[in-house]
Specification:
14 helices; binds magnesium ion; six-stranded mixed beta sheet; 26 strands; 581 residues; Rossmann fold; alpha+beta; binds adenosine-5'-diphosphate
Length: 581
């Protein structure tokens, strides 16, 4: 191990030399109060920034053990500290100092959701932040003095401010960790309570704009209030304030298992509720407004996604008798329609264990959702390949245990199949189930049920792992997350823009590498076993090992944990995917 003085000496020696001389920095340096690891040095000022780790021993960081005991609290504290480091960087780091990424220091910080990330590790032995740092240069010439300011002043200052309990705001840290703990505890109770989701009274669901995930201001947002008939009370682990008083249980809207239809006039807040439920599979930061919107972990958003590829999915329960006798029991296409894509997405989600489907009329194919009496009269069943969702939604629940929450403002045929009908009116939910049932009896739907045979059991497909090829040019593995909704995988680009429950580019990056990892050894027993294998691996070993170039304790790269459903969704959208016959 070197000391910080050694680091200073190296920087003095390489000052004004060519950029490659920065490579001499690689190694570990003991500072007063922490160790700095310089794991990877970038090749030039414009390349991916260098990767460093700052490790503060537990005896110096002194975080109270109860803040990181157990997985949920540890993940929460880590996420909190990432945000603290991010803030400290903004305060401390001078920023741009030369060309390219010179002068930049960054941590992989998340948005409104709290996710397990590799950017921070808290153990009883140490607290470790994994950062990127742009080593400064002018032209191709090393700016040694600037590098010294970054590594010997800014980095220690960041560690001091954000990685030591004595400088962290104790109240905010506790509130953050307890809040996440409460959310996860509500999630574990949903099943026993017979619920698929919970929306606390007082929750703020709308966002400040279509381009922002932050809450709409309190002055403009209508807080959510549960309809009395569906109000439940759920105990929580740590007291919080609701309606101005401190409480050990939260009241709110419990959405029961079964079929729930959300109706209401246009612009009355239907989609906003559904979007909050989609995101509710993840915990949220305090003050998000949705921190007590909690959805069962088996919930999957389903939407139409024309143009996507589909590989050997049995969609015959929804679509049969396509023109020219195209097979639908093992349906494949490079260019799906709205309805075939929606059918495939449902079966793919159920294949890997979805227990609740979330659908919005705004993003659904109309002909997939319903066919009314007049259309049935004009276009006979033998010429219409689609069995609409309205004729399968009850069966999905009763025979397959899959609940549905559906936004449908435009079609009353769903009244016949709904267990609960909720009307959004002026952004408030009303329980209109009885009235909808009465209307369904009075105005009988003239349409006929179009199922001819029961929906078959959903089997697990076995991918041909050679159909996943991550190589490109000379690189054996070239996987890159360009954004939250695209993975460059070898020569392919996986389009994830229709996978709406992916929230973070670091999840997308993790999925790219997870597919590669799984292709070597986890695919032989089928898709479901594959994603389960990955979940177990993440539970046991964390996400650090995802990067194939990761070695020993080195900086693992920036990953956030994806759900099993989104991993499967990415594989299902890889256009080269082949499934065994
Ligand atoms: P719908 O799906 O019923 O047509 P949306 O959910 O898209 O309606 O909401 C319409 C608009 O109302 C959006 O701009 C949304 O942000 C806003 N909105 C939704 N819920 C609330 C609320 N509780 N308070 C204030 N504005 C809201
Ligand atoms: Mg809408």
């Amino acid at each position: 191990m070197h000391t910080v003085d050694d680091l200073r000496k190296i920087l003095a020696r390489i000052d004004s030399r060519g950029y490659k001389a920065y490579k001499d920095l690689q190694g570990a340096y003991v500072y007063p109060g922490f160790t700095l690891f310089i794991d990877h040095v970038q090749g030039d000022p414009f390349a991916t920034p260098s990767k460093i780790r700052v490790r503060v021993p537990g005896g110096i960081a002194k975080f109270p053990p109860d803040l990181f005991s157990g997985r949920v609290r540890r993940v929460a504290l880590q996420d909190f500290l990432i945000r603290e480091v991010h803030e400290a960087i903004r305060h401390v780091c001078l920023g741009n100092r030369g060309i390219g990424k010179s002068g930049l220091i960054a941590i992989d910080v998340g948005g409104q959701e709290v996710l397990e990330r590799t950017a921070m590790v808290v153990t009883p032995q140490w607290v470790e932040a994994r950062l990127s740092l742009g080593l400064p240069a002018q032209g191709r010439t090393i700016l040694g003095r600037q590098a010294e300011a970054m590594l010997c002043q800014e980095v220690p200052e960041i560690a001091e401010r954000a990685m030591k309990w004595e400088h962290v705001d104790e109240e905010r840290a506790r509130a953050f960790v307890d809040c996440v703990d409460n959310q996860e505890s509500i999630r574990t109770q949903l099943d026993t309570l017979g619920l698929v989701a919970f929306i606390a009274d007082g929750a703020i669901l709308p966002r400040s704009s279509g381009a922002s995930d932050r809450p709409l201001s309190r002055e403009r947002a209508q807080p959510f209030r549960a309809p009395a008939s569906l109000r439940v009370s759920i105990p929580i682990l740590h007291p919080v304030s609701q309606d101005g008083r401190l409480t050990h249980s939260l009241t709110g809207f419990g959405i029961p298992t079964g079929v729930t239809v959300i109706v209401g006039g246009g612009y009355h807040g239907k989609s906003t509720v559904l979007r909050a439920l989609e995101r509710g599979v993840y915990p949220h930061v305090p003050e998000d407004g949705r921190e007590y919107v909690v959805t069962t972990e088996g919930a999957v958003k389903i939407r139409a996604e024309d143009g996507r590829s589909i590989e050997r999915v049995d969609i015959s329960g929804f679509i049969e008798n396509l023109p020219y006798r195209q097979e639908t029991a093992q349906f494949s296409t490079d260019n799906a329609s709205g309805s075939t894509s929606q059918a495939a997405s449902i079966l793919e989600a159920v294949e890997v264990g979805a227990t609740t489907l979330l659908l919005d009329e705004d993003t659904s194919a109309t002909n997939f959702m319903v066919r009314d009496a007049r259309m049935q009269a004009l276009v006979h069943k033998e010429h219409e390949p689609i069995t609409p969702f309205v004729d399968r939604v009850r069966e999905l629940y009763e025979r397959h245990g899959v609940s549905t929450v559906l936004v449908m403002g435009g079609c009353g045929d769903y009244f016949d199949v709904a267990d609960k009908v909720i009307a959004m009116q002026d952004y408030q939910p009303l329980d209109v189930t009885k009235e909808a049932q009465r209307i369904a009896r009075e105005y009988r739907t003239q349409r006929e049920i179009e199922t001819t045979s029961p929906l078959s059991e959903v089997g697990s497909r076995i991918p041909v792992w050679e159909s996943l090829d991550p190589s490109r040019g000379k690189r054996e593995v070239k996987i890159e997350a360009k954004s939250v909704d695209a993975i460059a995988f070898g020569h392919e680009v996986i389009d994830l823009s229709g996978v709406e429950q992916l929230v973070d580019a670091s999840q997308t990056r993790a999925i790219g590498y997870a597919l590669h990892l799984a292709s070597g050894r986890l695919m032989d027993r089928g898709l479901k076993a594959m994603v389960q294998g990955l979940v177990e691996l993440f539970d046991d070993a964390g996400l650090d090992r995802l990067d194939p170039y990761h070695q020993g304790e080195r900086h693992p790269g920036n990953f956030a944990r994806p759900r099993a459903f989104e991993i499967a969704a990415a594989l299902n959208r890889l256009r080269t995917l082949r499934i065994r016959e």
